[in-house]
User: Fold this.
Amino acid sequence: MEQNTNISNLFDLQIDQQTNSYLGETAKWTKFLSILGFIFCGIFVIVGIFFGSVIGALFSGKLPGAEMSSAPGAGGFGALFAIIYILLALLYFFPCFYLYNFSSKMQIALRNNDQSQLNNSFKNLKSCFKFLGILTIVILSFYVLAIIFSIIAGAAFR
Assistant:
């Protein structure tokens, strides 16, 4: 029985001064990057709304000097543009949110020597990478589907 406890203690990890310093610096940089990410999310939403309305007006022929022909339903391009940019901002928001939570909780954990905050911090870091991993798989799947459809379309029109 005593041997099992020694093995368990053998694999317990400790945060020494050097690791504490690395984690503290990492938390500062991740907080900076997450705040920058939040700013970019806001810019994406503003660009989506502004240029969505400009593109919608341009395609519907409502802008002065716009000589483009007004086709029925052409104003929907602006709405589509706005929706795409807002969705991109929403997708980018979640990794930034998890990264911000990681950095905030890590700073609290290191300052107060709090194990539960440290665990929550790493839980948020895991969630950030899990989200990015799943998003990467989804995007790669779309690329594979696009390549397959391109090959099929190329073969059909040959």
Q: What stands out?
A: The chain has one domain: 23-156. Residues 23-156 form one domain.
